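PROTEIN SPECIFICATION:
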Amino acid sequence: MHYVYILESLTVPGHYYIGSTDNLRYRFRQHQADVDSHAAKYRPWKLKTYLAFERKETAVRFEKYLKSGSGRAFCKRHFD
């Protein structure tokens, strides 16, 4: 399975991170531990939601959509 996930910062409420992976637990742990990544300054994170896809191509396409203007509006409507 391939996952698209949305993280919300606990230190900066309203700041979200959208990503995709084939190993959700491992990737979440990386976000919590990384000190060099862009997302590190917003730690700790909580997992807001995730969606599972059978095909990687579909997951990547949906991730790209969520990062667009209309995709962010979709997130606010459905995941807040």
